[in-house]
Design brief:
It contains 3 helices and 9 strands; from the N terminus they run αααβββββββββ. The chain is of the alpha+beta class. The strands form 2 sheets. A 5-stranded mixed beta sheet has the order 3-9-8-5-6, with no helix packed on it. Strands 2-1-4-7 form a 4-stranded mixed beta sheet. The protein binds copper (II) ion. Copper (II) ion (CU) binds next to loops.
Length: 146
Amino acid sequence: MSRLALIALVAAGALGLAACSSDDQAAAPAETSAEDTGAEDGGAEDSGDTADGESAEAITVTASEMAYDGIPETLPAGTVEITFDNAGDAPHDLVVEELGDEQVIPLVDGGESATGTVTLEPGTYTFYCSVGSHRSMGMEQTVTVE
Ligand SMILES: [Cu+2]
């Protein structure tokens, strides 16, 4: 929407320079929409909000003994908001090996929940639980970020 408005604004400017008063019918509607955009003065802000909204991905991960549920095999590049529910009895966490073993979700006791965010560039990542030997017991998943 705002990109369209920006194009209209540029087009109106070009028409104004090129055609001046000779093309009133074409210029009039373009000027109207350009003025509307200018009055709000929020074209750039709208673009920013839209970009943030599109890049934010939200997932809910459920942990139990000894598995994760809800970690997608593929994720879009960008920031991922993670809601982590520990449905098990033991404490679990969520660590991303390729980010220097970053603990995206800190230790969460059984029955508790936590939230965290992680920003991922395209690549292949291993999500795992760093508690005891949980990883080798099944709390590990490969995620492809595109
Ligand atoms: Cu665990």
